[in-house]
Amino acid sequence: MQPFSFSQQPLEPERYRAALSDAAAGGYASFEGWVRDHSDGRRVQRLEYEAFESLAIKEGTRIVAQAIERFGIRRAACVHRVGDLAIGELAVWVGVSSAHRAEAFAACRYIIDEVKHRVPIWKKEHYVDGDSGWVNCERCAQPGHEHDAGAHADHRHDATPAFAHDYSRQMALPQVGSAGQARLRNASVLVIGAGGLGVPVLQYLAAAGLGRLGIVDGDRVEASNLHRQPLFGIEDVGQPKAVVAAARLARLNRDVRYDSLAERVSAGNVDALVADYDLVVECSDNFATKFLVNDAVVRARRPAIFASVYQYEGQLQVYRPREDWPCLRCLWPEAPQDGLVGNCAEAGVLGPVPAALGALQAMEALKLLLGMQLEALSSVHVFDLLNLQWRTLHARRNVSCNHDRVAAAQQPDLADLELAFADLDAARASGLTLVDIREPWERMTDAPDESIEMHVPLSSLLEGRSALPPGGRYLIICAHGVRSLALAERLRGIGYREVYSLRGGLAAVTA
Amino acid sequence: MIQVEIQYFAVLREQAGRAQESRETAAVNPAELYEQVRQAYSLALPRAMLKVAINDEFCDWTQALRPGDRVVFIPPVAGG
Lengths: 511, 80
Hints:
The complex is a heterodimer of chains A (511) and B (80). Chain A is an alpha/beta fold and 511 residues long.
């Protein structure tokens, strides 16, 4: 069964349900959307659904794959009806089979919510009084949109999805285009600190249409923050920054998923947080956090963008997970003590100073995500906004820096579990046997995989219906590198020595 | 004696009361140079907390100074 499909014919839940059966599943949850006879107080006679199918299927398929990865469920699918529907008919069906019920319910809810929000499907209501109108288009889903007369005068309901228009100004750049926009939509970024630096970072990354944005800040909005953090308002004083920021950003762009964590980054949560995102933007206001984040990105091999400000000056440093690239500790071998050199509270700051540095961090983040114009040499950029001077100071990897020891000491077993390759040919050249563990229905979608020697679905491996011949050297491959990492770890645990996971999965080598 | 260009950042700029200067010095390396300016301006930060760059490259404190070098002293900054 396709993970996401459209049907001109009445939906058949029983048949779909059978396709999700799985010996390892302990339960099944489904959601059915029905055509009801009223809408906003008007009596509805029938409905008409229309979709921009090629794009909708891609987006729908992505949503189902994300649900499988995120919730660790066994199987999932969604079928949406198109054409004319009568009252009581099924408009949409979502089904999930899973080892445990909590994940099944959560994934089911996730899929229907995301489909409603992200997939370009339009609904036309035909009312009993003979009138009709298109509803539920993407713009209609925005808050504050009134369904009164002339509500749709400001936008057309044609088959072009609204989000293609929203990003047109950046997509017009040859380095972005639709491929670049797709990369942004699939990207996740963790922003640590929603302060003077973090606010512009969050605003520009949300506006650019990322897939997921993590916001971590344990502080509450203070009146003294507002001059440099104008995302917040005076009525927000006393509220958790992470929560307020997510709400404000959702008004800016609902395409993005916001994870807000109103906690301080600590040794206990930093590794899990960093590992869950493609890129980290460090916007905290203290050395302790900056070095905690530095060590975590080195361990997890994630790129990170650091910035700090002092009065009228700012420093910007990009960390890339490469052998020859310096980390924060290469420059500052011992984490400086907070309080010695002043932060914004102690030293004072004008709002546009962190805003300028934050905008530069957002720019560097987009460049990294889009794979464009990367610095060949690592540098610390030092900005003096009072004299409008900018110095680029080249920095080298400090061979005596303990950043490798930091990396090795804390995660000895997983250090080499993931391998990154530019493409599958490079992976093959390493002498490893490539093993695609995606399920058969996933392989029918989009990623080119003809060249992979072995196809062994993860489900059959986990259930013991098949096994990899012992003694081989394997590179495990899945869609995004999450399941392959889990499997590689499991196989190491049962005695396979040379088994690795393709970092980022097929998405990383075919992007 | 040689002539070098010095630039100060962040708290050093505040304490030195200047963003840059041209200085005659007998110092043979940036470590000696920093000790001189530290005494001249009563700078509070010990050298161990700073980075130094010469001609836009971070370098060791013992690198030999040459006439006309642009020397930059940078403390770490944390504000955000």
